[in-house]
Amino acid sequence: MQVIYSHRRIGADPGAIHAIPEGRISIYKEQGANGAEAILEMRENGRLHSRTPFPWEAGNPLVMAFLEDTLRAMARTTGGSPFYLRNRIKEALRSGGEVAAVRVAVDGAMLDAQQVRFRPFVKDPNAGRMGGFARLELTFVLSPQVPGGVIRFSASAPQAQDGPQAQDGPLYRETMEYASLKPQE
């Protein structure tokens, strides 16, 4: 079986952020040379974009893919150090974030879930150099009632609030959302 997620990404800077209007991510188990692997395939417009194996025991590889996509978009847009940004995101994740119980519709049923929200750069001393990414918000909606435990990952950063460069729409938004469980292709 494979777990399928929809994948969408938009950004105000097309040179830094590759838009994905309709993407699909599938995760399935495969036997590799070193044992069981979780294979994460990302498709865009039906075409295979990447195929990455992860150790099966490591859990849902979507977490890593989501965080790395966000990190790369932020580093490209701001020109900031990926190492610095990665460490700030790790610190935010270790903080536990803001946790709330939520009910979410999945396949026509209402499920109990946990929503965890992180704002890694709100108090960062370098926030002034990050533009809208200073207000980056990472939201995880998780439930053991769906395969893989992930209902939705989303990242959003608004445009800068003022100045001549202010625009409508987000500076960056990416969403990976549970779609279905299907037989392996």
Task: Give your account of this protein's structure.
This protein has 185 residues and is of the alpha+beta class. The protein has one domain (2-182). Helix content is 16%, strand content 48%. The protein has a 9-stranded antiparallel β-sheet with strand order 4-3-2-1-9-8-7-6-5, covered by helices on one side. Helix 1 packs across helix 2. The longest helix is centred in the middle third of the chain and has 17 residues, at 62-78. The relative contact order is 0.20. The mean pLDDT is 88.
Tell me the domain tally: 1
Number of helices: 2
Compute the average pLDDT: 88
**What does the largest sheet look like?**
9 strands, antiparallel
Order of strands in the sheet with most strands = 4-3-2-1-9-8-7-6-5
Got a strand count? 9
Percent of residues in β-strands: over 45%
- Category from helices, strands and their pairing: alpha+beta
Fraction of residues in helix = 10-25%
| Strand/helix succession | EEEEHHEEEEE
**Shape category:** globular
